[in-house]
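Components:
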Amino acid sequence: MTAWLVRRVAAAIAIVFLVVTLTFILMDLAPGKPLLGPPERPVDPQAEAVLEAQFGLNGSLGVRYVSYVRQLARGNLGESFGLRRPVADALAEAIPNTLLLAGAALLVDFLIGLGLGVYQALRVHRLPDVVLGNVTLFLYSVPTFWLGLILLLVFGEWLGWFPVAGMSDPILCPNVSSFYCLMDRLWHLALPALTLGFVGAAGTARFQRAAMLEVAAQDYIRTARAKGASERRVVLRHQLRNALLSFITLFGLAFPFLLTGAVLIETIFAWPGMGRLATDAILRRDFPVVNAAVLLASTLVVAGNLLADVLLAVADPRLRVRGSETV
Amino acid sequence: MLRRLAFVLASLAVAGCQRSGGCTGEYCGTLVLAAVGEPDILLPPSTQEAVSRDIDEQLFLKLADIGVSTNTIGDEDFQPLLAERWEWDGPLTLVFHLDARAKWQDGQAVTASDVAFTFDAYTDSMVASPYRPALRRISSVKARDPQTAVFRFRERYPEMFYDAVYHMRILPAHLLRGVPRDQWKTAPFGRQPVGDGPYRFVAWKAGQTIELVADSTFFLGRPGIRRLIWRFTPDIVVATTQLVADQADGRDQLVTPDNIARAAAAPQLTIYPYRGATYGYLGFNLAANGDSTHPHPIFAEREVRRALTMAVDRASLLKSVFGDFAKVPPGPVSQLWWIWDPELHQLPYDTAQAKRLLSARGWRDSDHDGIRDRAGQPLAFHVLVPATSTIRKTYARLLQEQFRLVGVQMDIDEVDNSVVAERAAAGKFDAIILAWTTDPTPTSGVPQVWTQAGIGRSNYLRYANPAFDALVDRASAAATRDQARAAWRRAIETVSADAPAIFLFATDNVAAFHKRVTDVRIRPDSWAALLRTWRIPPDRLIDRDRVER
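Structure:
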């Protein structure tokens, strides 16, 4: 198990390094210069040259890459051209906001998705299953940004039940300093988290329903019933527990979904997270921020999958043994 | 209802969370402004972002500022700010006497040394200020004594005073002298500035807000509104939604007719139209795409450009895109400029004449495919449009259709703005839709973009007409407005007749602010310049105005 884990971690680090290297090269090859400004507000050529030198943009790709890797090894992510501040500072402010949004969305996703999946599986082919099946299919088909815009329009602008943008009331609660402000933060979180969570929950529900039905046909479920176990015990102890194995895999895959979904949702709801930071940086060709965002996102995705693998190994001893023997 | 319920419950749960009483008299009020984008830095010489400028306007004073007339010639229409008065000491020397009451917000007096330091910083190549070129005709700024700053110019010209005061915001030398100039681009001061303006900096929450609070001791009078909060949003639609949903109090530009209609329908808002500073056009590259040494195979011919201009019904396009909130410009002119004159002679909309001109130049549809051709080459070109501009993308599609009717094929290349900038600078385009936001004076914008002096810099179209250049020089050097106006008229008519571009729109700006805000005066070149004089009367205060923190 330990040797397997070490190898998985080493592979994960290599993948992240490869992604960061590719991003660095691709951003350099992409058209558009970072300090040129919009065409109607061009930077004076002399000023552009000075700024390029100050931001370390005047060397060859190889020289800049080596310098970047050296700085990265020291934990220095560089300075943002667009934000005019250290990238690490900008990320340190944005990451907690994205984690809060993604965490809340994950909660909505798995609580609703798991509940619906189990509920449908227990009423398979009956009216609630059919209705919920269509509802989840509809939600699963809906682009996240579209659902976000609809929720924003209906519950934010028309009904006025929720704030339309931002993560707090700038006057009463610039910081979470009281229970009132905690409520305010949750109130601002509701629409973006529900948007991300609903779409995810639709997929989770369909996945979980299928897993429950697959397990229901297994011999050990029939055996449990034959031994006289109660239906509640059969469902919770035998059926759900075994169906959760696939759920753990889904948990690992949810990270990339939430991160990519958050890019659009953070823009629509003016949520000051990683997604918005990265989008703005790409449009501005703000390489240090883009590289750092990719580094972080790829680390999260790889770590999420690694975590899922480890959880699977813990939950299913067969996988652990097989893993030890074969890896 | 849910919102109310949630907050009532929360309020009941925690005693003392709700503030009772609060600010109730004059000088109360909080204005939440929905901003598109976020400042990069609050250090005036290092930025030209619009939001940064609006906030800097409240933090850092100029020596004097332009009047509501936006007259840039001479000094009679300028208003004193840091300088209580000024006088000319010979033709090339301007002497400013500082107001002795002016203080930095850390208590230090504002002195002439700050003025000299500011000029030195703005013109230092290591600071790489975008305003440096505008100060090239000032040779030096010196402190004669703590209250007297002396500007010396290299030459005499009508806008000397404008150049001396408009581009620079005076900086605190005692706080910035120790910061190496090559580090100004990321100086910590720029995220926690100390100014001398009507408002003090309070906090900057990245990606969310910047908060300022009124300086009640401000020497030119206490600001009417106690607190200003800029709330950052990623785009104009989200900003307008905040405004309409009563979660923000104001927005300086609504841009599209949709947003204007939404704001106009919101009962809590008042709409304020004012002169816009932007004009837009479809520009033709007069040099070959990517090769400035050769003429463009289509656009190098003046008559072809004139034909294309006559093929476009600019008035109906304008109506489709902007509704009533823009005008067809007579040339490269924004409504902000005092030379704006819609009566100037322009090429008419005349598709029959356009077709005749194209045929006369040999562009005929010889293969009957609907597209004119000459010597086997179709009359086809690509137009470069920034993908982020809904207005320009819409214009591109409408133009495409109008050109098709006269047998011209236009393909649209929608790309990132940074790619547009790179390709424009390198001359790698056939045609391009640009929208310039101008200074208050045509004497900087027109030469940069339309004369031969701008080729290789902002004259991306490589338009060159010595007669036009001479008229611009004459207009810029004219001692009186009447003399300048006559020269500008002829210059604009000349460039319009040459048709290096089809001049499509000159915007009206439309702002929206909450009805409780009174005394709203907007100076067209900078909507926030007079913000300190706005107020919210005590009987109109709402909950968010009274909050004490």
